[in-house]
Amino acid sequence: MKEIKSQKYVLFILRSAFYFMTIFTLFWTVGILVNLGTIKSTGEMVCLVLCVLQAGDYTFLAYNLAEIVECNIYTIFSIKNSNNFKKLGYGMIFLSMIEEISNFFNESGFDIVALKETSLKTTSVIFFIIGLTNIYLSHVFKEGKRIKEENDLTI
């Protein structure tokens, strides 16, 4: 089985990120539940929930990216990879929505479009574009699998 260079290192980093984010998300969730009575406002509660959702989404993204990187050179064009790219895309779009919602409560970063009480942040737009790109890549990999199967039959 042929391996892709530096695959082991990338997988180590992604799996480490996945395990770290899983533990971080669990501890943060438990910490919020334990200290539920000390939360002073609804805005503070929304920010904490958004932080947990964001950490959970980063965990989901690290897992799916590790699944994509884990394949060998002969199984790159597979339905599994296509589905993982689609999940990655939807995860990035979800992350862009969380990022934009949290911007209502915490003003920071650069504005792309700024109106009186709302603005569109750069990170949200970038996450959204990357999400759409990953969904498109999902279709490309599905078509790549079809073409590969066609070529395998033609001998």
From TrEMBL:
Lineage, top-rank taxon, reads: Bacteria
> Mind telling me which residue stretches traverse the membrane in this protein?
12-34, 125-141
Record's keyword terms, sorted = Membrane, Transmembrane, Transmembrane helix
Q: What is this protein called?
A: DUF2975 domain-containing protein
Q: Which organism is it from?
A: Clostridium senegalense
Species lineage, top-down? Bacteria, Bacillati, Bacillota, Clostridia, Eubacteriales
